[in-house]
Amino acid sequence: MEILYLLASIISNTFISLTLSILIPFQYLYSFISSKQIPTTKINNGTKKPMFLYQGSVSHERKLPVYHSFRYSARYALFDLDIAPQTLPRSFFKDHLSAQQAREITKTNGPVFLLTIPPSVGYEQNPLSVYYCYELDGSDMCLNMCIAEVTNTPWGERVSFVFRPNSDIVAKPLHVSPFMDMLGNWSMRTDTPGDNLFLAISVQHPELGDYFTATLKAKRVSSWTFGPVLFFWMMPQKVALWIYWEVNVINVYYPFKFTSII
């Protein structure tokens, strides 16, 4: 029954995505005719961008009980949550925290940036989104706290938790893989987003030790001629396909080796 549901979901989402993709050229034509552009905001004689684009890769490595690793290319957006919701499509921020909500959770007083993969042509798939919450001290601004939003696949459950960016350990809050139990902690670390972006999560298990690591490495894209719609076209779909592919491959080739930790 679960396999049938999965197949039906894949067929339905494929049809919707392809149909909405056909409409993209007409949307760009309308934007060109009406001369619509993504606006910027002037603050203190400077220009603030609502969004920065990043392109890089996500890698997973599991050392035990059977070694397995994979990597896929990914594109992310870093939104300035104080101005982006007023200038970009509302679908980009659906089910995410506002800047004020993030500040209240982290007890910070500065800007809040959201790193995420926006939905594309009717589909959303985002295993991890991160809020970067800054603290203002006069004219100085520094990254103080982060919030992680983790969504598991295929169950679609989501949890949020706060962590310190330089390095922090949190108790594992939900099931994210059929091949990992709920024991252990997550060790998380991220750099301040700039021209380069780095994020790492490792699992510290009481029996298997530091046996799993996931990393995101990306570089800021200086410009993209055709805008965010084409930049992120089918990106969530690609992430979902890669996750399902890896899980099914492991199920086929190594099912008997994981019975001790499922």
Automatic annotation (TrEMBL):
Keywords: Membrane, Transmembrane, Transmembrane helix. Pfam families: DUF1365. InterPro entries: DUF1365. The keyword Transmembrane applies. The chain crosses the membrane at residues 6-30, 224-245. The keyword Membrane applies. This is DUF1365 domain-containing protein.
